[in-house]
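re: ur question from earlier - yeah i can do the single chain one, its not a big deal. heres the input i used so u can compare w yours
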Amino acid sequence: MKKILLTLASAAMLLTSCDDKLDIKPYGSSTLSTVDELETLLNGLPYLWSGSDYFDLEVICNNTYRPWNGVADYIGNDNSLRYAYFTYDESIDRADLTDDDYRYNNLYQKINYMNTVISKVPGADGGTAQKKDQIVAEARVRRAWYHFLLVGMYARQYDEAEADKLGGIPYVDNTNSAEEKTKLSLKKTYERILEDCADNVLEKLVPTGVDNVCRCGLDFGYGVRARVLFQMKRYDEALRYADLALKINGRLENRSAVKTTGNWILDYDCPSNYYLIYSDNSNLGDLYGYVISPEVAACIDPDDYVFKYYVAEPYMDPAWGTPYPTVPEGCLQSNIGDARCNVWGLRSESMYYIKAECLIRSGQISEGLAQIDKVRASRIEDPEIYADKTGLTEAEAMKLLQDSKRFEFIKTFENFFDRKRWNSEEAYKATIVRDLTSLGLGTYSLSPDSPIWVFPFPMNAVKHNKSLTQNY
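and the output i got, formated as tokens:
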């Protein structure tokens, strides 16, 4: 069981102290000089500030609705990002409305911390050669992951035939603040990501998982490479690294205890987390008040432990109840207050689903469905065994996977990244339809190749970097 070695309060203090110590001077130099001091840059509070109180990735996927004011809050201003993402209005100039983007800024700030570690640790005082190698390797893998999140949001889906012609993102590998960070092609961006999580880097990581939720070991390293290759549609290679990750940490969060306790507590130190990055909000990343669409609600198994047995005190509310009448019929609103979502990080469940899809695509349908069954067994009381189904086509097995995965990874980046990837394949592309007829507001649709699937670079970055032309 992982243990949180730093309380959230002390971690926040540590992050502040790290920011103070970093003290970036002109050209990126830093006041940190010892290995121990530099290592504190890896211990910052693992959150990603979004700058908004709604999750636009899941809004775009038609997975969530804003609570409280509901639809009215989305469509009340037809010249806003909320309106563009909710109505799928491609005519709105999203770049012009994006003066700033907290995710973009925060991820590149994290990358800057990693670059400080990578550049300074080898020559720093103290620490063994092995410790230095481990610290640098961890910083490189995390740098790869932060760039992967960025390219998944701000560029188009990777396709080998077109990747060298499409725009990617700047791959920042130094702390020279005076240097313009040139946007690379999509192909080159992914090549750089893979270099930072290559085998010769991974072999220097702590060869297990780690006990500190702020840090990561080899399970995360293998997981990063698996998830990147998976997004690139290099499924055979992704399967290999997902297997390696699961051999180190295949532990699953088990929700069966909800049957007897009536409560679902998912802590940040859940043993299935390879590396935690939660989304900062007033509830520190929990599910309370989160409204899911009718389409996601339909993916919940009636025998799901949380859905069936959870009772929210003091009013004895169910886990997923009826929301305010400001959203379409069939939506459900979460009353769950103690489930902390790993929104931007990685956990073992992702590896099981990667393995499942890769096996299904290779024709090993029963074996692939068995991986989903392993996860579902810890979620659902007496679940139907998918692997026992016979005569399923690849498409039928994929539909089971997609529905199961959609709810499993609610309120994470996974659904958005998956949908972009599936939309690039003829067999699995789909037009999303948001049905508001129960509110008398008609329907809205999002095509698989819509520019909405690519977020705009913020204007405060574009005006300082001429290479940041938009990728849609």
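The first strand starts at residue 47 and ends at 49. not sure if urs matches, ping me
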